[in-house]
């Protein structure tokens, strides 16, 4: 049995991110467990899978990662410098710290079907540092 902590923008009425979550859950083994970072009020989740919703809380996220075997980003363009520079730096910095925390605990780090859009040199450095912590990365488009 593998336990996955699934990071993404799930439950925020973003059809693409939720679809990526459902695809991951669908291909997850029946004996596996998923800790899903979730901001919404309700979710359609498969009844035959062992899934625990994790609220957006530093303590709850840290505990879920500690219980997991892998930190997984499922879909989404989390590595992007579109919009406000400070907001993007915070988002990528958060991912870097969560991946670093996971690796320090001996967890596997996976970035699955992510989008990467970085035009500035400093953002490329930050994204490269975060991606350097992952054991597996797949991107969802040729631009990434």
Q: Topology of this structure?
A:
Elements: E1 3-10, H1 15-27, E2 33-38, E3 50-54, H2 58-67, E4 70-74, E5 79-80, H3 85-104, E6 108-114, E7 116-117, H4 121-131, E8 136-139
Parallel strand pairs: 1-2, 1-4, 2-3, 4-6, 5-7, 6-8
Helix pairs in contact: 3-4
Write up this protein.
- By secondary structure, this protein is an alpha/beta fold.
- It has 4 helices and 8 strands; from the N terminus they run βαββαββαββαβ.
- It has helices at residues 15-27, 58-67, 85-104, 121-131; strands at residues 3-10, 33-38, 50-54, 70-74, 79-80, 108-114, 116-117, 136-139.
- A 6-stranded parallel sheet has the order 3-2-1-4-6-8. A two-stranded parallel ribbon has the order 5-7.
- α1 (15-27) links the parallel β1 and β2 (33-38).
- α3 packs parallel to α4 (121-131).
- It is globular.
- The mean pLDDT is 85.
